[in-house]
Amino acid sequence: SQKIEQNSEALNIQEGKTATLTCNYTNYSPAYLQWYRQDPGRGPVFLLLIRENEKEKRKERLKVTFDTTLKQSLFHITASQPADSATYLCALGDYKLSFGAGTTVTVRA
Amino acid sequence: DSGVTQTPKHLITATGQRVTLRCSPRSGDLSVYWYQQSLDQGLQFLIQYYNGEERAKGNILERFSAQQFPDLHSELNLSSLELGDSALYFCASSGASTYNEQFFGPGTRLTVL
Questions:
Q1: What's residue B98's pLDDT?
Q2: Which pLDDT score, from 0 to 100, does residue B49 have?
Q3: Residue B70 pLDDT more than 80?
């Protein structure tokens, strides 16, 4: 069956450092992969989408890589700030998005 | 603000009851999606409508149904409620993009007592 796994449920980092989150998937052949941010009790917010033929995508301090051979995406938050504290979800699929369980990032000042 | 609105914000009801959750998509978006998020299950896709027609179905229970109206707003009906239906219910919409990035509403928190 299809599975999406995100590394460790929680990640605690010091302000200014880079947070790296992992999303691994099995039994998918996605044409693209999405990352969302979710704050407690609120709806997910779309951050970035990366297509299968793109190795890397950047948006401000965010960087996403996509390796279809390894079946893995890495999500980096560089120069992290306390305001980046949230749960980050990766998602696969076309209309029926399947989400990973998320990684909760806490950035300490 | 995503532009997607959901009402009500909170709903508290009893087992066996029926409730209706409402969603208005972003202006111009034809697709509406419903998701359920509970602590133990994460965010689960329920159903998608596109321009009034059902397009895709996830693990939606038979007790749950949805529809999308001509003005594109959508309703999710949950009946014969059980304690396990307590969750956050999100609506999302998407536009004409090929890649289907979705814009989520603030959610309705349903508590079944």
A1: 63
A2: 95
A3: yes
- Which residues is A31 bridged to in the sheet? none
Q: CB-hemisphere CA count at 13 Å for B50?
A: 9
Is B104 in contact with A44 (Cβ distance < 8 A)?
yes
Burial A51-78 (b: 16+ CB within 10 A, else e): eeeeeebeeeebbbbbebeebbbbbbbe
Q: Which residues of A touch B55 (CB under 8 A)?
A: 95
Matching residue, tokens 């793109």: A54
Q: Do A97 and B45 touch (CB under 8 A)?
A: yes
What are the C-alpha distances in Å from A7 to residues A23, B29, B48?
7, 33, 29
Q: Of B48, B56, B101, which has the smallest distance from its Cβ to A34's Cβ?
A: B101
CA A37 from chain centre, in angstroms, equals 8
Is residue A94 pLDDT above 80, yes or no? no
**A60 contacts chain B (CB < 8 A):** no
Q: Which two tokens stand for residue A56?
A: 């890397």
Question: Is any Cβ of chain B less than 8 angstroms from the Cβ of A102?
Answer: yes
